[in-house]
Write a structure and sequence with these properties.
This protein has helices at about 20-35, 55-70, 110-120, 130-135, 140-145, 160-175, 195-210, 215-220, 230-240, 255-260; strands spanning about 5-10, 45-50, 75-80, 90-95, 95-100, 105-110, 125, 150-155, 180-185, 190, 245-255, 265-275. It is of the alpha/beta class. The strands form two sheets. Strands 2, 3, 4, 7, 8, 9, 10, 11 and 12 form a nine-stranded mixed beta sheet that branches. The protein has a three-stranded mixed beta sheet with strand order 1-5-6.
Length: about 280
Amino acid sequence: MDFYHTERPSRIAGSWYSNDPKRLAAEIEGYIDSSVISDDEFKGEVFGLVAPHAGHVYSGKTAGYAYRLIQGLKYDIVVVLSPFHQFHPADVITTAYDNYTTPLGSVPVATDLLSSLHEDIPLQQVEQDPEHAQEIQLPFLQTALKGTFSLLPLMIRAREPKKLKEIAALLMDLLSQKTFLIVASTDLSHFHPLESAHQLDAEMLRRIKAMDADTVLAGERDGTASACGASAVALLLYAAKMKKGAQAFILNYSTSADATGDSSSVVGYGSAAIILP
């Protein structure tokens, strides 16, 4: 694979989150520190997280619950699985840059791992790389984690369980000699009245908690549950099911109405964690 040996500039600093480093760090620390999580409830290794990708003013509180669980930890690799919000025919998309930049600094892309994965999965690189669902997670990771990490960005458009299971198996083999975290970046239902959103989101969170990747995908197809990153979540769950004793926990739920006061048409946000014994 060929990469631009330059940094991908932030596409959303100054709009989706602050472009001032001190303010951004303080806001994220606030989201994380205000998350109330019982240490007794989550004993074990954090394998993966589900976190929302809306602007921080809307979903930062809910994201903070996920990142509270990894505060102070260190990983070699963080895999961010996300949707790709523009049309593209490829099953799996990745960046053409070898670094991502946020106001908090630069995050190197694990280009060697992407090249290795490309030998088994045809990864399509996007030159402009406009996807916000990847970048929105980075300031949280930069703030919560100790030390540096490399990013493995994968934007998932495949929807077939068989294909996603194959990708999960290849990913687990690729990461077998690394310390890693997998983050599935997704929002929940979009633009429903609050009551309907609550019903759809509760059903999707129930399926995530049950670690039922097949029904996560089915819910997005048939409208019984909704997540724009359903394929990313399913891929995380398929990977987690390869680990003995993995359990999913729902950490927090909110909607855009909590920030705007408008309950007529809302977006849902949920955070979850996959814990290994």
